[in-house]
Amino acid sequence: MNIHLIAFIVLGILAIASAIGTIATKHPIYSAMSLIVHFFALSALYLTLQSPFVAVLQILVYAGAIMVLVVFVIMLLNLNEDEKQTIRIQSRNSFGIVLAAIFFIMIVTFIMSNPLNQPNSTNVYNLFTAQSLGSVLFTKDLVAFEIVGILLLSAIVGAIVMAKKKLIN
Amino acid sequence: MNEILWISLEALIKAIIILSLLLLSAAISVYLERKLSAWIQLRIGPNRVGPFGLLQPIVDVVKLIMKEDIVPNGANKFLHGLAPVISLAVAIMVWAVIPVADPIKIGDHIIQMGISPNADIGILFILAMTSVGVYGIALAGWSSNNKYSLLGGLRSSAQMISYELSMGLAILSIILISGSFSLSDIVNQQFSHWGGFRWNIFIQPLGFLIFLTTAFAETNRAPFDLPEAEQELVSGYNTEYSGMRFGMFFLAEYANMATSSAIITLLYLGGWTLPFAPSAIGLEQGTWILGLVQFVIFAIKIYLLVMFFIWVRWTVPRFRYDQLMRLGWKVLLPLALLNLILTSFGVLFINH
Amino acid sequence: MLELYLPIIVMVVLGVVVALVFLALSMWLGSRRATPLKTTTYESGVEPVKTARERFSVKFYMVAVSFIVFDIEVVFLYPWAIQAGTLGIIPFIAMIVFIIILFAGYYYELKKGGFEWD
Fold first, then answer.
1. Angle at B216 between CA B45 and CA B256, to 5 degrees
2. Domain that includes residue B255, residue range
């Protein structure tokens, strides 16, 4: 057994277990904690794929920024026991299963058709260092990059508009 | 497989050494804080345990371990225990990428003086871990079921994320200059110009001030110690903590102070480098003596900064929370952005 | 690769283990004599009123949202900063445009009072 395979299996199990934990635990804050563990497992998986830059961004952005907001919101709402509703609507559940199945099929077809899947393609990993990411981002994908800027701008404006009523009061 | 074992073993030995040094330096910082604050306030300070009260921190820790862990009514038991673990673990983890000296050579082996100083994510790893450290404080505040804790935890986490941005921008300016995320590269770059004295503080004075301010805010030290403003919040997020659980927050705070000082030293103050070529005083590159000398220089710089942290705490009054937020978002963030743009113009100008 | 990142993982694991050991040590060595009075939450000496888990100000939420957006902006700057010296003039201009777009967002939030705390 080679070390990468072992690492992949261990981290994969951790990632799947914590992902299940995220949707299976009752209390929202445990869900959030579980999701953070999941991000750490994913980050370690990126490390085994020789992409430390992506690995560290995974923690910096998802575990360090987005989950902070999620935890804040959970704490902000502070649901009391009687306010908690467990969603047990059957139709919604079946809808979720269908959606998950579609998503699963999409991922499988993507992996099957993906040229990156070939073990011999050499330039796969080189894509994911900070340097190579930079040279792609600022030459070929320049337009996409600027659009991301505008997207972030609209995110700020949206957040302000939604919170404005509260801010004035 | 064998190679992996050796790498892990070497890493483990180094990790244990660095961990002991970190805990030791946390103890020294606690002692320094008590002694210096006493002098500043014309008191004597600890002087009973050991010569000059030097053993005081050890006795403190033993006392904290023997004390009872009180978990308050209605607290979330699991998270109440988890929060200090996160805080302390994060404070330890950041040292994974911090070098303490140039690599030394023993026989054919080149030994890095740090756990993994050449990892090309270096400073980003530190930023990522710091951003995870927010959970320790937010969860401590929330899980305690105490109003003071909740307010302290909230204030503290909002403060940490606010200042993290300016910190990231200040670091970006350094990355622009050095072209590397690795801390040993950043230090060597400062050494390799201007006769070993091109410290980043001289070309990034504004960045240095921004980083210093954010370092105070990130470690929740005065004048940014809003989360534990005694007069209004008792003790902030750790109000309901006792025994070693409190001790872990305490340890993490002092370890973070030493870590921040180390990072400031590495990024702006030339790290462990001598102000001249080591061969000028007969030290060969790669010998253990040079390694030791460099480590001592590094430690001295760290402790001077730690003393500065302490000096500021006992001199400067605390901010009000709205002032703190205004400073973070309306002053430091635009300044850091300005600093970044000026630096990038400078780099562009030099390179073309 | 391995020799660079395995040590980091070792340190991360060690950090967690040490923190857990401290926790376990105090559980093992510390006394446990909890009384109902001792475990009441501290509220300046009076009986605690209601629970602490109340809803709090939306301003903290605003801080977190602004943080996310600007943090992602900073993340986009890293791949640029690391090789700004070699990339040339067009990426530089692209970056300045990007920063200006986000500064517009910052300015909007500033004018709308998103950073006000009173």
1. 70
2. 2-351
Mutation pick from C3, C21, C33, C66 vs chain B, by most beta carbons of B within 10 Å, is C3
Task: Name every residue whose Cβ is closer than 8 Å to that of residue B33 and which is 6 or more positions away in sequence.
Answer: B254, B310, B313
ipTM of the complex: 0.85
Q: Smallest CA–CA separation between C23 and chain A, in Å?
A: 19
Q: Tell me, what CATH number does A29's domain have?
A: 1.20.120.1200
Domain that holds residue A32: 1-86
Give which of B179, B190, B158, B339 is closest to B264, Cα–Cα: B190
Is A68 in Cβ contact with C67 (below 8 Å)? Answer: yes
Partners of residue A51 in chain B, C-beta under 8 Å:
none
Dihedral (CA of A135, A139, A142, A143) sign: negative
Instruction: State whether residue B273 sits within 8 Å of chain C by CB.
Output: no
pTM of the entire predicted model: 0.87
Going residue by residue through chain C (118 aa), what tens digit of pLDDT does each one get? Answer: 677 788 888 888 898 999 898 888 877 877 777 777 777 777 777 776 766 666 677 777 788 888 888 888 888 888 888 887 777 788 888 888 888 888 888 888 888 777 777 6
Q: How far is C79 from chain A (nearest CA, A)?
A: 4
Domains of chain B: total: 1
Count the domains in chain A: 1
